[in-house]
Every structure is written in C-alpha cells, then in structure tokens.
Design goal:
The protein has five helices and two strands, in the order H-H-H-E-E-H-H. By secondary structure, the chain is mainly alpha-helical. It has one domain. It has a two-stranded antiparallel sheet. A hairpin with a 2-residue loop joins strand 1 and strand 2.
C-alpha cells in the first residue's frame, strides 16, 4: 500500500481557503486542477493506483490496462469552478474502477501523499491567513 497524505493538513485546508480572499482561493484552485489531472493520469498510465500501489494482474496473468474505449482515461481529469476543484464526471462504471483499482481516492479516503505535496508546492507562493 502506498503512502497516505497528512490528514491534519487536509482537514485544515478548506478552512484556510475559506478564510483567504476569494481571489487567492480561486487562483490556488485553478493551479491545482491541472496538477491533479496530471498526477491522476500518470498513475493510470503507469498501472498503479493513486496511492502508488501496483494494479493486480488480469486473469490471463498480463498487467491490466483498464483501457477498452479510452473513455475512463479521458475523463480522469479535474476542473476548477471558482474555489472548488472537482473531478469531471466520468463513465457510469468509473465508480467500480475507483473501488476496485483506486483510479481515484474513494469518498472517505485521504488524498494521496503525492497530491498533498503538489498542493503544498502550489501554495508556497500564495499568502494565506
């Protein structure tokens, strides 16, 4: 299993962003969306879950690519709307790929450590209260 993010930082981030001026929070969200998209797509292409654990082999012993139509890989992206960063809705079966193969963190799962480090790097130049 891969390393998980620091939950204290994740819990504090929404309140710190709410306390920041809206323009600062929107700027951070706009920078975070493409960065998280890149990290998610790199994990998908690399055959690992978002925490860095390798994907299991298929029934034929070959590595799973999870690519049949390309729809899942195309929709593993994030968008920012104002101060909110969200995953773009994917195909209807994406929820099963999240649960079984970890293509995105589950609902109550902490964000991956690499994501947390990337967001911290983006926040370094931004002054938060």
């Amino acid at each position: 299993m891969g390393l998980r993010g620091d939950l204290r930082y994740v819990r504090e981030l929404p309140s710190r962003l709410r306390a920041a001026p809206r323009t600062v929070a929107a700027a951070v969200a706009a920078k975070a969306a493409p960065a998280l998209t890149t990290l998610t797509q790199q994990a998908f292409t690399g055959g690992v879950d978002v925490y860095g654990a390798p994907r299991p082999d298929g029934v034929d012993g070959q590595p799973l690519t999870l690519r049949r139509t390309g729809e899942t890989e195309r929709d593993l992206r994030f968008a920012s709307t104002g101060t909110i960063v969200r995953n773009v809705a994917g195909p209807r079966y994406l929820k099963y790929l999240i649960g079984k193969y970890g293509v995105l963190p589950g609902g109550n799962s902490p964000i991956p450590g690499e994501w947390s480090r990337k967001i911290r790097a983006l926040l370094r130049g931004v002054e938060l209260p």
